[in-house]
Amino acid sequence: MLDLHPEDEFFQYLKAGSAPPGFDVYPVFRKLQGRYPVWKSPWGDWYVSSYEAVCHVLMNRDFLQSPPAERGAGSFVHEQTRDLARDFDKWLLFSNPPQHAELRRAFSRAVKGRSLKRLKPVIEDVCGKIVPDSDFGSCEFVDSVARVLPVAVVSRILCFPEEDQQRISDWSDCIRRGFDVGLDSLSHEDVAALEEMMTYFRDLVKSPTWRRVSAQSGLDELAETFDSKTAASNLAMLAFVGHETTVHLLGSMLLSLSEYYDAWQQLKSHPELVKNAVIEALRHQSPVQKICRTAVRPIELAGMRIPEGEMIVLLLGAANRDPARFPNPDRFDVTRRDNRHVAFGIGLHRCLGDNLAVLEAETLLSTLLQRWKSFKVKPSSISWHDNSSLRGLDRLCVEWTA
Ligand code: HEM
Q: Entry's Gene3D superfamilies (predicted)?
């Protein structure tokens, strides 16, 4: 048995869903991978940490998404949170075939192909405005840069009025807290904010102005094909998944570059490696650390028998540092080859915004490289937020010279 005590930080991290400040999860992942790549926890959920087993689950139709309300069936104490969970059940992210394909198609046009071309100048324009270009200076990077770009891009996709942009960021924080502590344990203020969010999106999809402008961003199919509750829930989902994850990528990428400063210097002389650097940042500090599936029939995985209906937690952050797949996995290496990480998931639910997120990070990194000669992070300012599903920084103060 894995020696795990309720007072252990790792136990807290897995069970309570929050990591104590400064807790380094990667050495424990390594231990788990070596001995129990598929591990049954004392509280009943299965944890999968090897790259091979994570890919196997994601590519296998015997493991399906389990939507929040369905998962917590009957256990919601508060009526409001039960209703919110039902709204979240309509998300593309939590849907299963056959509805999944229809919803995914309705979103694809807004974030793939020609939409990326349309969004490129928006991304360049925002990066030009938010990256400081004075001779030298200092800033708190998360709030002044990393949080600004994704919200601007997502607002453009959602055809969101500019004056309401800040609301996406605030709602997105509430959703994250809901997934951290469970919707039922959210504060009254957070529940009220999420109810307001749902009302806002329901009104938005019914508004003739939004219906007209959304045709330009390719979201009109969503409003035309689905009822207003499903369309509104999915817009809220897009605001969350398109924003929060990318903020974390941008912050962690800069931190990794400061910790492996030779990589920053290498990128200065080899800008063609910028995309590699972004891919490596996704692998090295995966913004989405864990996702879940449910076994729809009894199934064997890495020698373990998983009964039907049990919950499987896929540790993407562990898989992306699996030494059996990535040589020297803890090193941030912008020249790494064959870097097929699972930070965007794989299979049916593979991230729809993968190319968009990479484009945002690439454009930001190129702008930083053009404007800053050197930079350093103030170590005392580094603060990771304590959520164990999404990994990202709350704070990162940097000083630069141009
Ligand atoms: C660094 C940034 C991002 C990361 C790490 C990330 C990660 C992920 C992961 C791991 C999944 C799969 C979840 C699962 O299988 O359960 C996913 C799904 C999804 N992502 Fe992203 N994502 C990012 C950015 C974005 C952006 C910018 C958008 C759109 C604006 C987006 C839209 C979506 C959508 C719509 C899905 C659901 C796809 C489906 O269920 O078929 N993501 N993302």
A: Cytochrome P450 (1.10.630.10)
The whole-angstrom separation of Cα 360 and Cα 127 is 9
User: How many domains in the chain?
Assistant: 1
Task: Look at residue 389 and tell me if it is in a domain.
Answer: yes
Q: How many CA atoms lie within 13 A of 245 on its CB side?
A: 25
- Ligand 1 pocket check for 182: Cβ under 6 Å: no
Q: Is 107 in the pocket of ligand 1 (CB under 6 A)?
A: yes
Task: Output phi, psi for 272, to 5 deg.
Answer: -65, -10
Which residue among 64, 111, 147, 245 is best mutated to probe the pocket of ligand 1, counting the most ligand atoms within 8 A of its Cβ?
245
Q: Tell me whether residue 380 is in a domain.
A: yes
Cα–Cα distance between 145 and 139 in angstroms, integer?
Answer: 9
Which H helix or E strand runs over 383?
A: strand 383-384
How far, in Å, from the CA of 127 to the mean position of ligand 1?
22
- The residue segments making up the domain with residue 289 are 9-401
What's the rounded mean pLDDT across residues 210-230? 89
pLDDT for the residue numbered 251 = 98
